[in-house]
Amino acid sequence: MSFTKEKKSEEWIFRTSNRAPLIEMEYPSVPPGQASFPVTWSVNDPDGDSITSEVFFGPEGEEPIRIASGRMTSVFLSALDEGTSYNLLIRATDNHGGETVKETVIVPGNRAPSVVVLSPVSQEELEPSAISFRWEGEDPDGDSISYELHLKSRHDSRVIGPIDSQECLVRALEENEEYNWYIVATDSRGAFARSKEAVFKTGDKLLAVALPISPQPGEEEVPLSRTRFSWEIDGNSEGVSYRFTLGTDDQMDNVVFEQVLTQTNLELTQDLLSNKEYFWRVDIISEDSEIQGEIWSFKSENLPPKVPELKLPLDGATEVSTRNLTLRWESSDSDGEIVSAKVYLREPDG
């Protein structure tokens, strides 16, 4: 018969770290001409702690004043001037001292942009050395937009930005991992929007992967003539050749140029069409396999409109009525639409 013996160690105490609250909010939708509106948000604490909030508000350039405090998740803003920039600051604090501050610029009458993720959005496994993220965004007021890419897995969390284009190449992701990602679009006056979240998976890292040097993914105004493409290899490049493919769709169904070569650069022998989105890919060819590369996009140079041709009043015309004066001209653009025109009037010298 055997007897189990045990001895009890001394007892030590430790405390886990406190995590700060999380604040999420959407940019308030404020129709033009509306001077008063509510602002709502949500606050969550990852540790389940109780939370109190403070809200500060005021015109941009001035010290914001506290307008509310407590456990609320909304405030009503009133008597605001359209077109004026205001700072809204929300400070959330838990009962263990964890604190998060979110600051937002609000411009009454300014509408938020919209943004939609394009790829990757499937469960297909992707090679993790370099993955190209693509999305679409637009602003209803015509403001310029910058973007942030938010990327997260179990062991990897990144925020990349600001990004001016609608594509971003991210390198060195983890192998065999599931990632979530979304885009935050912010216009030049502070209005913002968040896309829906997308999911993709990475697979095993390949022995060799082509990475773009020029044009960069999402690059615009790429020259139409003698366009140069170049890339580098992550991994073993000994004894390999490359299949370069250029197309006009993201599935590469409409191929406009293809060539197999041994160097890592190419000068195109044909001109590109102006103001057009193109897609290109580099496949790595070895003795026993051909590794299909990632697809990257760019946009060719947008040509300016033709010089406007004046029609009325005729040059040198006299006795032109100043009541209901009509100015007429003709203009055209070879690769797009003319969205606006500026008219200049001045008195002749002398």
From TrEMBL:
Name of the protein in its database record: Fibronectin type III domain-containing protein
Transmembrane domains' residue ranges: none
InterPro entries documented for this protein: FN3_dom, FN3_sf, Ig-like_fold
Highest taxon above the source species: Bacteria
Domain Fibronectin type-III, chain residue ranges per copy: 112-205
Coiled coil: none
